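Quick illustration, no need to memorize.
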Amino acid sequence: MLLYFIRFLFFVTAASVLLVGLNATAKTEPDIAVFIVGLGICILAIVVEWLTPKKSLTALAGIFFGLLVGILMSWAMKPIIEMINLIYNLQIPEPTLRMVIWMTGMCICYLIISIVIRTKDDIRFVIPYVEFSRQIKGLRPMVLDTSVIIDGRIADIAQTRFFDSPLIVPRFVLNELQLIADSADKMKRNRGRRGLDMLNKIQHTPAVEVIIDDTPPPGVEEKAGVDQKLVAFTKQCNGRLVTNDYNLNKVAQVRGVDVININDLANSVKTVTLPGELMQVKIMRLGEEATQGVGYLEDGTMVVVEGAHDRLGQAIQFTVTSALQTSAGRMIFGKMEDSGSSSGENGYRNRGYQQTRTPRKY
């Protein structure tokens, strides 16, 4: 939007300069050719700017830097234009020469500002130690992933005033939520609508600040995946990525981005169970071994009880023998009366138990 405003301002200013130049030369000899040449230079500047590869930049810093460089280059071009007029004896009238200098300076400033706005990631290679970066005052922001918004637990956590830093939802994440909500698949559509409802709930939570950020991720193409954009965006704003996607978690850590995994947070606040403790659970299905029964606690923790294979649908008491904690979830092993538990635990450990989590693919 800002770039369109700059283009409009450039057109208006260029037209004004050309008209003033024509009025100044009208007293002697109107030079329509100069007007056409000036208009052609303006169109050429717009075409060159339009074909410049699009990238992002903090707008104000880019405009200031580009304008400063443009003014310096325009000042350097003035004696060169006057020298060309003198050497080749072009005999350009003084008002026309002044208009040419003004138009050249305007085009230079416009081109430099446009190029800096679109190529800010390359500025550091051209001018060492000059780098434009987005700075957010206060605590480091937390960037929300699509899956963690759909999951919904982030809304409950926000209501507990656990977060002090602002929550940022990039525009491309919001677009992905809307795309999922408009899907022809009923399951995807329901998940997308749930995500939009959760986002609306977070926005109306007074305990946390939610920001919808339209800034495109730097150095990433428009057609790139959301995961790639999230990592680049979080790194650019020096934030922390909030997700419950295992693969995105690993990719972000490789790229040096701090990650807050909701699954790890949920596992860390679960009730600690000690061997020998008595607990109660409802047996929901049979286990991997013949004598095992499987149930789930209220927080979703999976419980494997030896000797409970004949108690389907019943709430039983059992003695905790051990607990298996992984980055994907937690399991509790127990026994009824004198039933053994070592074989069951080893069986589940060998099968690579993973707690159910929200998938990344919708």
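Residues 59-87 form the longest helix (29 residues).
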